[in-house]
Amino acid sequence: MNIIESYAPYVLSLFTEVDSGTTPWELIDRLPEIMRRTVVALGAEYEERDGSFIHRSANVHPTAILQDSVIVSANASIGPHAMLRGGVLVGEGAHIGGSSEIKQSIIGPGSAAAHLNYVGNSIVGSDVNMEAGSVLANHYNERKNKTIDVLIDGQVVKTGVTKFGALIGDGSRIGANAVTSPGTILAPKTVVARLELVQQLQ
User: Fold this and answer.
1) Which residue blocks in 48-188 are alpha helix, DSSP H?
2) Cα-flanking dihedrals φ and ψ of residue 18, to 5°?
């Protein structure tokens, strides 16, 4: 069983071309092209709006900005002034709050980025709650070598990519104004305290 299947199994059911050997960073790196192919197969219950596809039961605030192949699933909601860009899938019943930015990411069913959140190049599992102001950082702007490594089961794994935010396991809770460093891997039901910095590798 691979790490996506262990931490956020819903994700592997989304895309038929993604198999159990795919790593989270490989999936996120390929997400824009995968999304462009996925939207073609969506049914009549989705309405196209400027290249994005919105389920007819979803609620998207008129001030929200959706760019570059966004899918908003059934009963999901997108709040005022939110920005979704670069290939984003919002799962069934998920909520993206006001003034949040979601970039090239998957948000699982029933999950919420409450408001003023940033989620970059990340996989957020099902039933995850991100309190206000929490950030999934996706890039080491302060480093000369910007390639991201991750820590899995005590082992350092080189991703080979320079943009990857986090894999957040199902049922996790991220406190207000907490920040996860690029390459964070959180097991299901992890609780991150308010104002905490998660930095798994130095």
Assistant:
1) none
2) -100, 120
**pTM of the predicted model as reported, rounded to 2 decimal places:** 0.97
For the chain, what are the domain ranges? 3-198
Query: What pLDDT is stored for residue 13 in this prediction?
Result: 86
Q: What is the pLDDT of residue 57?
A: 98
Angle at 160 between CA 155 and CA 162, to 5 degrees: 110
- Residue 115 known to be catalytic: yes
3-198 maps to which CATH number?
Answer: 2.160.10.10
CA 178 – CA 180 distance, rounded (Å): 7
CA torsion sign for 89, 91, 92, 98 is negative
Query: Which of 55, 81, 95, 115 is the catalytic position?
Result: 115
Q: What integer pLDDT is reported at residue 1 of this predicted model?
A: 54
Cα 80 to Cα 64: distance, rounded to the nearest angstrom: 5
Q: Which residues of the chain have pLDDT under 70?
A: 1
